[in-house]
Amino acid sequence: MLKKTILSGLLFCLLLLLIVRFAPLAFTATEPGNWWTSLAYFFTESGGTLGTIVGIVIACYLYTINETGIKNKAVVFGKAIIGLSLIIGANAAINEKITKPILKLQRPSHVYILNQLQRAQIIDSLYTLSKVERIAYFDSKIKEQPLLFKQIDPKILAHWVVEGGYSFPSGHTFNAFLLAMIFSLGIEHNSHSKKLQGLHYLPFVWALAIGISRVALGAHSWVDVSAGAFMGIAIGTLLLYIDFTRNLITHKH
After folding, report:
1. Which helix (H) or strand (E) holds 250?
2. Phi, psi at residue 193, to the nearest 5°?
3. Does 253 have pLDDT greater than 50?
């Protein structure tokens, strides 16, 4: 089961790399009222905080399907949700507090905003500010000169402002591929349903869409999302390979 999950994850990582590297995606999902903008934003939000929480709940439900009795189901669900929350939360914290601050790569959206404001030369000094201070800066400048950004959908602008942190790697893509690993193994884990097992690749389709959306929205570069995807698969493989962490989720060897 785990080998199939790992292989699927790697194949979709490679597919994502090829798409975001060679397709002209950057900033294609920013036009107001455009269907592609709305679709890309939907997928991005599905990989955000709320979407991840919903995903964790769904994944935990998958691991209760083979259990009998309400008590057993509740125990497995509770165990899985605690384990998954700790695993994903810890990795998200490492990404935001350690990896990104060390590498300090600029977001494409930040470069775009400063170019529109004709202040590209201040980007290095801007990144010496805290994340909260950068958010406040972008918010105030966009509100001061709204006509400079009339070609950008308001919800995308708001998304750019809120995401005031560094760019590399893509946290959304990292979480999506990590969660997709867990989803996929959860589907495979439901050994009583062959039809459900056949859908083990669908979580990776979702993760792929999130990675594409991050580039299309201008929130990340192809390097950011590719690295996030491979890191998500690597961490997911490690966590699911180790008996202790795998059993926190699956309840079984």
Report:
1. helix 243-250
2. -125, 100
3. no
